[in-house]
Design the sequence.
């Protein structure tokens, strides 16, 4: 039983600390999206403009993930994570005390990308504490910190009703400070931290074709998850005319599916192989997004998004069952690069949805486009696994792909 094995291996406090760090960081990373309705009202933004603003932290996170990935491999995930949380306090203070112009929103969004980069320290911490046969479930548990989106979408709008969206940024400093303290006390650097290498050598993984396969696949699964999480509040308000608080409830519901099913995806991938699971998930995601493009009644569109986000979340877990097996020594850097690709996907999706809405007058075109992307990802996965079956070798171990 995987969960029983998990108790006997690794370091549970570090795994919990990784989850908490990723959870609070993810909450902060998507705050602009959760508060998008209020920001739109203050600045009179169009769908395309709000799509760009909520996507800025996602794109910035892609850049910072590479930096955090290098730091994780050089100085260790614990020191890197502590530094990341301290830096994350800067945009929160800025948004709380200032944040009165659109230009400031862009700069705040860029700095919020440091919170999104937490992925590159949280997952290697989990990975390096656990053996290969537990990678899927351990990485899934740490990666389930993307449930921080739930905190942003559920509490963000409610708090904004009383203290304004600027005040929400100030309040976010409280849980961040608590997690920083708990992480400092609980987390422990893994025993197999690799020796530092020249920075140039870390980028050698870009020469590997498999790195690019993982990047493209993750840009669909994680990019889809975080991109939708950032944009759906505005979608529900503008398409179905619900209040900002009610929209936050709908988004919380659908995001919960993707967040909590991520470790399930990793667990299933450990048993049957990540490729087999992903084949099913990409088909399911494409069908769900096509159903959303029909813009059915709100109950049905919520159901389709709930299932679609679940498929995307499980896909995130499945991909990171494969990544550590292929790049065990370079897991920090590869996590940063693949995570960056996921962030880039998350940047483009809100822009696609918002821009196509402005151009065509309907959200249908954007969701149809995302459905087609899911089918293309399935084709790419089929191509990639041909090479994987021939080339992957892990110290004589039998690896399920």
Sequence:
């Amino acid at each position: 039983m995987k969960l029983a094995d998990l108790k006997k291996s690794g370091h549970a406090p570090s795994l919990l600390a990784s989850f908490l760090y990723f959870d609070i960081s993810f909450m902060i990373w998507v705050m602009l999206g959760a508060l998008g309705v209020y920001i739109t009202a203050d600045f009179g933004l169009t769908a395309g403009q709000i799509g760009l603003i909520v996507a800025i932290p996602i794109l910035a996170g892609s850049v910072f993930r590479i930096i955090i990935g290098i730091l994780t491999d050089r100085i260790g995930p614990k020191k890197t994570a502590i530094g990341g949380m301290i830096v994350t306090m800067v945009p929160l203070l800025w948004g709380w005390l200032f944040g009165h112009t659109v230009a400031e929103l862009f700069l705040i969004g860029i700095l919020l990308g440091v919170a999104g980069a937490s992925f590159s320290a949280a997952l290697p911490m989990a990975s390096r504490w656990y053996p290969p046969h537990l990678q899927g479930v351990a990485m899934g548990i740490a990666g389930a910190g993307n449930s921080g989106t739930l905190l942003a979408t559920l509490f963000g709008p409610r708090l904004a009703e009383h203290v304004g969206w600027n005040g929400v940024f100030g309040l976010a400093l409280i849980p961040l400070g608590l997690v920083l303290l708990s992480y400092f006390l609980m987390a422990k650097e893994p025993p197999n931290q690799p020796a530092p290498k020249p920075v140039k050598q870390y980028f050698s993984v870009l020469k590997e074709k498999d790195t690019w396969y993982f990047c493209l696949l993750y840009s669909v699964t994680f990019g889809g998850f975080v991109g939708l999480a950032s944009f759906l509040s505005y979608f529900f308000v503008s398409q179905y005319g619900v209040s900002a608080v009610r929209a936050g409830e709908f988004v919380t519901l659908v995001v919960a599916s993707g967040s909590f099913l991520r470790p399930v995806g990793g667990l299933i991938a450990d048993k049957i192989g990540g490729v087999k699971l992903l084949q099913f998930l990409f088909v399911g995601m494409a069908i769900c997004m096509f159903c959303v493009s029909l813009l059915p009644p709100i109950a049905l569109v919520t159901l389709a998004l709930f299932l679609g986000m679940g498929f995307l979340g499980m896909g995130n877990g499945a991909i990171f069952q494969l990544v550590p097996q292929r790049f065990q020594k370079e897991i920090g850097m590869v996590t940063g690069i693949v995570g960056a690709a996921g962030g880039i996907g998350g940047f483009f999706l809100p822009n696609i949805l918002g821009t196509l809405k402005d151009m065509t007058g309907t959200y249908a075109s954007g969701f149809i486009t995302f459905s087609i992307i899911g089918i293309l990802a399935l084709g790419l996965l089929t191509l990639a696994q041909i090479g994987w079956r021939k080339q992957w070798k892990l110290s004589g171990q039998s690896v399920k792909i």
User: Anything to note?
Assistant: The chain has a mean pLDDT of 87. The chain has one domain: 13-188+207-391. The radius of gyration is 20 Å. The domain at 13-188+207-391 is CATH 1.20.1250.20 (Growth Hormone; Chain: A;).
